Amino acid sequence: MRSERTRGYVLGAVAAASYGMNPLFALPLYGAGLGADSVLFYRYVLAVVMLGALMLVRRHSFALSRRDIVPLAGMGILFSVSSLTLFESYNFMDAGIASTLLFVYPVLVAVIMAAFFHERVTFTTVFSIALACTGISLLYRGGDGSTLNLTGVVLVFVSSLSYAVYIVGINRSSLKNLPTEKLTFYCLLFGTLVYVVRLRGGVDLQEIPRGSLWINALSLALFPTIISLVTMAGAIRRIGSTPTAILGALEPVTALFFGVAVFGEAFTPRIGTGVLLILTAVTLIIAGQSLHVPNAVTHLARWMWRPRLPRWAVRWAHRLPLPRLHHRH
User: Fold this and answer.
1) pTM, whole model, 2 decimals?
2) How far apart are CA 224 and CA 184, in angstroms?
């Protein structure tokens, strides 16, 4: 059981880190003149083809029961809406700021789970969310006093809400029992329909102008799509929706890493403090699932306050002759 939970935390961390690669692969495609719908169409179609091929190689079944079709369509559309609004927000604000604002979704997940599914919100959960949000705010490097674009903020909030509902929906529906690859495949397949409609059946689809950019499109389909969704579904099954969402704090850290390593951005003490707070929050939420603080405190208190006698008194008491009790029958 403990090994399964540990695996769940590892999968949640991988899901968050890989999802944080969205700007790394999407922005070069934007720079080549592609719009959000075309970028996401390539992302989803390539992911469906790659994941479908993997399922064929592994001889996994594609069969679905009727009761799973509607939930899968709903989850696919939700994830597509989340992707579309996030990618559209890149046109109104920096991708790093958008990734920072997106992190409101763990709060939304915790609220949804508490309001609709009566999940107990622990102090550790609240403190971890607050700590992570503080760390995320330190990663925001605007600082020029400019006001964020309202349209961009609304788009990121819609993306965050859609993503939160997707995470909860996977955990609280019949889809929880589907094999991870099949679940991800059909969510992406149904999600692709959103871009088919928006692109008028492919009439408005923009071509990728250079062969080198296909590497970005393939990477976009593999890392923040297939790997992220498959590992996230596995994490949700093992540790639940709220811890998986809080592990999403690693997404902006991933963006920061590539910003420093690939684009030569500065690493300041403030950013280092933000990263430290995020990692502390992630560590707390992981430790909080296995550490039962009230029980530990109770046992400690009982041990401290129980009456104890000196050893000589105990030995002396054992030597005393005890009277025999005669029971009347």
Assistant:
1) 0.78
2) 12
The tokens 């599914």 sit on which residue? 117
| Span 221-238, pLDDT tens digits | 999 999 999 999 999 989
Structure tokens at 51: 């994941």
Q: Which of 22, 7, 11, 6 minimizes the C-alpha distance to 247?
A: 11
H-type helices in the chain, by residue range? Answer: 2-19, 22-31, 36-57, 66-89, 95-102, 105-117, 123-139, 150-171, 180-198, 213-221, 228-239, 241-246, 250-261, 269-288, 293-305, 311-319
Kindly state the DSSP code that residue 274 receives in the 8-state scheme: H
Are 85 and 158 in contact by the 8 Å Cβ rule? The answer is yes
- DSSP calls for 184-214: HHHHHHHHHHHHHHHTGGGTTPPPP-STTHH
Q: With CA atoms as reference, report the closest residue to 289 among 119, 153, 139.
A: 119
CA–CA separation, 153 and 158 (whole Å): 9
At 292, is the pLDDT very low, low, confident or very high (cuts 50, 70, 90)?
very low
Q: Give the gyration radius of the chain's Cα atoms.
A: 26
Confidence of residue 207 (pLDDT cuts 50, 70, 90): very high
Displacement of CA 248 from its chain's centroid (Å)? 4
Q: Where are the domains of the chain?
A: 2-319
